[in-house]
Amino acid sequence: MRVPSTQWRIKAEIGKFIIWTILVGYTFLALVPVLWTLSTSFKPRSETLEMPPSLIPHNFTLDNYVKVFQKTPILLSLRNSSIIVAGTLFLCLTLGLLAAYGLSKFFNFNSQKFFLYFALATRAVAPAALVVPFMIIGRRLHILDTFLILILADSYMWLPFLIWLMKGFIDVIPEELVDASKIDGCSNLGILRRVIIPLSIPGLVSVAILIFIDTWNELLFAMALAESISVKPITTTMTYFYTDIYTVYGWMTSAGIVGVIPAVIFMLFFQRYIVKGVIAGAVKG
Amino acid sequence: MLRKEANRNEIFLFASYSIANSSMLKRKNVFFAYVVTLPAIIFLLLVVGYPVFYLFQLAMSEARVEAGSLNLKWVGLENFRILFQDQYFLEALKHTLYIVVTSIPVSVILALVLALCLDKIRRGRGIMQTALLLPWMIAPALGAAMWRWLYNDQFGLIDYVLRLIGVIKQPILWLSDPNVAINSIVICDVWQYTPFCTIILFAGLQNIPTDLYDAAGIDGANALQVFWYVTLRLLKTQILFVLLIRTVFTLRIFDYVYTLTRGGPGRSTEVLATYLYTTAFSFAKFDYSATIAVILLLITSVVALGYVMLFRGVTEG
Questions:
Q1: A136 and B70 in contact by Cβ < 8 A?
Q2: Using the beta-carbon criterion (under 8 Å), do A26 and B110 form an inter-chain contact?
Q3: Using CA atoms, how far apart are residues A41 and B146, in angstroms rounded to an integer?
Q4: Dihedrals φ, ψ of A182, to 5°?
Q5: Residue pairs spanning A and B at CB distance below 8 A
Q6: Closest Cα of chain A to B119: distance in Å?
Q7: Cβ separation of A124 and B36 shorter than 8 Å?
Q8: Interchain contact, B121 vs A234, CB within 8 Å
Q9: Which residue from A133, A236, A266 is facing B51, i.e. has the nearest CB?
């Protein structure tokens, strides 16, 4: 009896070892770009061109960060990105929550289905396909190169997604709870404010994070629809670092790190919600 | 007798009152329902519906810029005829499909392996999840800063390590060799989207009831059989979903191509999205760009529809 059990245990140990090797190995490889960039951003210019390269900077310096903030409009771009993200979040959440509430609690199954498939169809439209129409229509309406058009453009992908997800969250709120608050004299909007929103906060947060990250990372619309530096978000400002033949790698890497930080901080704080949001998105499609 | 009458009257009154009230309430509710739902519908019609209509109109016109405004002249399918003889377009299509058929299998298989590993461990799972998910948070436009530096042929880390362990003698020109550049983009794409696939597949694995594994074990199935008949079979929906999302998004790939190579060197990494972007914004050929966009739209829609139909088949049968 003892021999097979130790054999089994050895086998399990080997299995565990292999599993951990794969996980840690892949994670390490996947994080090398980040670590290497981080390390370069703290090196003086001479050290970035050293061979063999050092993973931990010998002459640690914050010079790149100081220069990037002083000599490039990165701070302005961070502000612009924040405005665009905030606007998109506000627009999506307001329209999406109202529509999801209306659909879930007032419409019959067939109308719900019709609207949801319409929303799904709009979501399926590739952003690249809309760039040119947005640009031409935006010029005609004189809203090109404003925060407004970027917010509208960034919202179109996420509003349908939000409606799908939120409808799912609101559907599972028991009808009795809604009826009870109606009897207590709540108006329809009161029910939304007092029952629906508080109960769907976790779902809302996870969707909001997905919207935040995706909007923060958006490049195509930002390049096509914004021209002036006072509107351009961080992603387009980054592309300036790529155009020069003579690139200062210290600046490029530190600017990249600065741009990534908000999304990463967000992620570390809300990691649980992100996983939830991604999975909910997978279920609802 | 009298009391009975009064009672009946009362009941009648109450009933009629409540009927009137409920229909009024219903009407009020219907009004409310439209008020809250319509803004989103109108938004989507204006921001997506109209631009898509305009896109098709543009694709079937000859657009001329006259006195600062765009004049459209109907030409039917002429632009499409030109498009299918356009060598650059066909190349862009080929490159896009190349990225789809290389990046997606690699990232999905990698994700499956990682998800299976993640499913097997208990301690440290949260930390591993966070670390694995990190690349997905990073904007391709910003991630490009990292990759450009890694890919650098003189001071880049990748070439240095490869030379150190003796895999290569000459540095690989990751971004400036026409034969290599597209693969460098595939690597970035895999790096960026494997985390997302892993999380979805991992969630699917978590939903498989453990007694199924036990039952398979009692039936004498070996590890490979369990994987094939239990795990993969029950993971079908998630795998299909991941394939759908990845295919649709990779067909639209723009960010990494634009920020790493701008379609170059030469045209060796030009994809549909970058081609339509430069056609419109560098050469101001809006009608032609719209034509490419229509093709992109049609391809992604057909692919999405195909997957959705597969989904139905899988979930029902």
A1: yes
A2: yes
A3: 10
A4: -65, -45
A5: 276
A6: 10
A7: no
A8: no
A9: A133
Could you tell me the residue ranges of all domains in chain B? 2-59, 88-316
Q: Map A69-134 to HEC letters.
A: HHHCCHHHHHHHHHHHHHHHHHHHHHHHHHHHHHHHHHCCHHHHHHHHHHHHHHHCCCHHHHHHHH
Are the beta carbons of B139 and A263 closer than 8 angstroms?
yes
DSSP at A233 = -
- Which position has the token pair 């390049």? A223
Question: Are A255 and A68 spatial neighbours (Cβ–Cβ below 8 Å)?
Answer: yes
CATH number of the structural domain B88-316: 1.10.3720.10
Beta carbons of A269 and A213 less than 8 angstroms apart:
no
| Among candidate residues B227, B242, B248, B259, the one with its CA nearest the CA of residue B194 | B242
For residue A250, give the chain B residue with the closest CA. Answer: B149
Q: Do A242 and B128 touch (CB under 8 A)?
A: no
Q: Which 54-93 residues of chain A touch chain B by CB within 8 A?
A: none
Residue of B nearest to A261 (CA): B138
pTM score of the predicted model: 0.84
ipTM of this complex prediction, to 2 decimal places: 0.83
Contact yes or no for B254/B277 (Cβ under 8 A): yes
Whether a cis peptide bond, with omega within 30° of 0, leads into B265 is yes
Question: pLDDT of B55-106, one tens digit each?
Answer: 999 888 888 877 667 778 888 888 898 889 989 999 999 999 999 999 999 9
Judged by CB atoms within 8 Å, which residues 205-224 of A form the interface with B? 213, 216-220, 223-224
Enter the tokens of residue B300: 């992604």
A189-201 per-position pLDDT tens digit: 888 888 888 888 8
Residue whose C-alpha is closest to residue A221's, from A159, A158, A154: A154
